[in-house]
Amino acid sequence: MNSISEVIHGHVSTDLLKDDGRFPNNEHLPLLIYKGVLRLHPDDEPDCILALFEKNGWSNGWKNGIYDYHHYHSNTHEVLGIFCGTAELQLGGPSGTCVELDRGDVIVIPAGVAHKCLKPSNDFLCTGAYPEGRDYDINQGRDGERPLADERIKNVPIPHLDPVFGTEGPLTQHWKQT
C-alpha cells in the first residue's frame, strides 16, 4: 500500500528537556511522543510514513535505525516514525529519560535534544525527516561545539505544520515562538 491505513489522535506526551551542561536539549520546545498514532496495514511499506511526513512539509527522509550514541541536531528539528519492531531511546543525554517506541509511534525531536537508541529489537526500522527538507548536522556533546550550536538551535524556525496532522496537530499546539 502507498498510504497509511489510518492516522488516529492517540496519546501524546510532552517533555521539556533542560540543558545538562553537555547537551543543550531544548528548554523552549517540548519533545512530542505520539503513541500508536499510525495504524499501519500489513502490506504497508516504510515509504508510506515518509509520504505522510512529506505531505506535511517534512522531507529529506530516510529509513534505518537510530544511532547508538548520544547526538543532537543543532540546525533542524527531526521526526521519527516507527515502522517495525521496538526500541528503547534515551532522550536528553546520559541522565535523560528513556522511552520505548513501537510500530506506529511517532516522536518529534526539537533541535538540540540529545537522543540515542539503547535497545532496538532485531526487526527495528524507523523513518526520519526534517521540516522543509532541511539538512542536518550531528553533534555529540563534545568540547568546542557550544556556544555555536546553542546559537544555531535558537535560530531554527518552528515548522508551520505538524508532521502527522498538518495544521491541527500537537506540534502546532505545543510549539510556540518564544
Q: Which terms would index this structure?
A:
Jelly Rolls; 11 strands; three-stranded antiparallel sheet; mainly beta; 178 residues; single chain; six-stranded antiparallel sheet
Describe it for me?
The protein is mostly beta strands and 178 residues long. It is 12% helix and 36% strand. A hairpin with a 5-residue loop joins β7 and β8.
Mean pLDDT over all positions: 93
Strand content: 35-45%
Task: Sum up the overall morphology in one term.
Answer: globular
SSE topology string: EEEEHEEEEEEEHH
Count the domains. 1
Spatial strand order of the main sheet = 2-3-9-6-11-5
CATH class label: Mainly Beta
| Largest sheet data | 6 strands, antiparallel
CATH topology: Jelly Rolls
Give a brief outline of the structure.
The protein has 178 residues and is mainly beta. It has helices spanning 47-55, 148-154, 170-174, and strands spanning 6-7, 11-17, 26-35, 38-39, 58-64, 78-84, 86-91, 97-102, 106-109, 115-120, 125-131.
Tell me the layout of helices and strands.
Layout: E1 6-7, E2 11-17, E3 26-35, E4 38-39, H1 47-55, E5 58-64, E6 78-84, E7 86-91, E8 97-102, E9 106-109, E10 115-120, E11 125-131, H2 148-154, H3 170-174
Antiparallel strand pairs: 1-4, 2-3, 3-9, 5-11, 6-9, 6-11, 7-8, 7-10
